[in-house]
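User: Just a sanity check before I run the rest of the batch. Below are the structure tokens for the first item. I only need the designed sequence back.
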């Protein structure tokens, strides 16, 4: 399952971009955009977008809800917020950023092989392994193991757990961690 950084999407995707991407026809009224809600018949001014706050609200009686760009896509396309965030991330943020960068904090080491047989044997698809930075190590201190990145709450890489049931020990932990 691909990773999505909700906070990164919210802070880097402008709601005006999302309005255009969704094809919503809204008119500028002062510092807001207004128009009909694509999901409800609440009148020509029911949907309000406030770009300065990166928020929207629908005044249609059957809706009366609002939120950020992720919630707008979820509402208009009738999909989950996770799927909406993934769609925004894929369209606007191009997650193929520099390895280990803030734009792509979950990409692993360049030499890891996400399509190796040992990774596949664990039931992890090549695409998911690549997106999460999981792969077979061809060099380094955990050579011949499938490496799983360990990250702190900011997404910074703090180490790897290496697994290979054919080696001794079968699980190798970084520095201060112990089983």
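Assistant: Here's the designed sequence for the first item:
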């Amino acid at each position: 399952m691909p990773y999505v950084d909700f906070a990164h999407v919210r802070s880097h995707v402008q709601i005006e971009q999302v309005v255009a991407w969704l094809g919503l026809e809204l008119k500028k009224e002062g510092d807001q955009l207004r128009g009909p809600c694509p999901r409800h018949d609440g009148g020509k001014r029911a949907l309000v977008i406030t770009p300065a706050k990166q928020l929207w609200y629908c005044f249609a009686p059957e809706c009366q809800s609002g939120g950020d760009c992720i919630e707008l896509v979820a509402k208009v396309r009738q999909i989950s917020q996770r799927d909406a965030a993934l769609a925004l991330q894929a369209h606007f943020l191009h997650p193929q950023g520099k390895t280990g960068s803030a734009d792509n904090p979950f990409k692993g080491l360049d030499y890891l092989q996400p399509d190796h047989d040992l990774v596949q044997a664990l039931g992890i698809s090549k695409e998911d392994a690549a997106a999460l930075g999981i792969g077979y190590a061809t060099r380094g201190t955990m050579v011949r193991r499938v490496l799983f990145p360990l990250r702190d709450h900011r997404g910074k890489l703090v180490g790897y757990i290496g697994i290979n049931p054919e080696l001794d020990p079968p699980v190798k932990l970084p520095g201060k961690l112990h089983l």
